[in-house]
Structure formats: structure tokens, C-alpha cells
Design goal:
By secondary structure, this protein is α+β, with helices and mostly antiparallel strands. 21% of the residues lie in helices and 23% in strands. Guanosine-5'-monophosphate (5GP) binds next to β2.
């Protein structure tokens, strides 16, 4: 499904709920995480509703999503280190079932 009316990220993407947008492409959007676990904690999200990484099979979309972290790192400064992760499934800690990659950076982060 392209859009899930019960999904918090779909509501943000459609403009029903506001959120700080850090960066976007035609296919993807980057939001500030509402409960940051690092000095910089962004969420890289496809604009279409896809449940998780395993369900994301479109090579064009995967390329779009994975081209974003280096751009964010460059915006933060040339030597910006970062961690990129996704929780695939409830047992892995996924709580929002719309694919997202956590991008974490900043002086002290461990997760
Ligand atoms: P998960 O546990 O599914 O991998 O990560 C969900 C992430 O979404 C969490 O880091 C949580 O803080 C973030 N989050 C949940 N609700 C909202 C929201 O309404 N807006 C934003 N910007 N982030 C959210
Ligand atoms: Zn969604």
C-alpha cells in the first residue's frame, strides 16, 4: 500500500502532522527523531508506506535511501562519523512499522 492512514510516518509525510524535515528527495525524507538517542538522531524514511527493510525490494528506492547518509554526513562536516541502523521486526526493537533508518552522529553515542 502506498499510504497507511494509521501510520505516524505517513501522517507526517502527507502533512497531517508536522515534523522537522532535515532533507528530502522525490522518494525519501529525513526527519529529526522525536526522542533522540544521540546528539544527532535522524530518521531516513521512504515516502511510500513499506513495512520494513525486508519488504523494501525496489532497487531504485534502496539506492535513493542509501545515497542519503553520505549527504547528511557531509552537511554535518567532512569528518562526521555516523551510525546507520534499522530494526527489522518487533523482536529487533521495531515499533514504527514504516521502514526507517536511524542515522546517529555527534560527540558521544553508543547505540
Ligand atoms: P523503531 O523503534 O521503530 O526502530 O524506531 C522508531 C523511531 O521513531 C524512534 O526512534 C522514535 O523516537 C521515533 N518516533 C516515533 N514517533 C515519532 C514521531 O511522531 N515523530 C518523529 N519525528 N519520530 C518519531
Ligand atoms: Zn507509513
Amino acid at each position: 500500500m502506498m499510504h497507511d492512514s494509521n501510520c505516524i510516518f505517513c501522517k507526517i509525510i502527507s502533512g497531517q502532522i508536522s515534523s522537522k524535515v532535515i532533507y528530502q528527495t522525490d522518494l525519501s525524507i529525513v526527519l529529526q527523531d522525536i526522542a533522540p538517542q544521540a546528539p544527532i538522531h535522524y530518521l531516513i524514511i521512504p515516502k511510500v508506506h513499506i513495512q520494513d527493510f525486508v519488504a523494501c525490494t525496489d532497487p531504485k528506492l534502496i539506492l535513493d535511501l542509501m545515497s542519503i547518509p553520505p549527504i547528511l554526513a557531509q552537511q554535518l562536516g567532512q569528518d562526521a562519523a555516523f551510525k546507520l541502523s534499522t530494526n527489522n521486526g518487533y523482536a529487533a526493537g521495531q515499533r514504527v512499522f514504516h521502514l526507517h533508518f536511524h542515522f546517529m552522529s555527534g560527540k558521544s553515542f553508543s547505540e
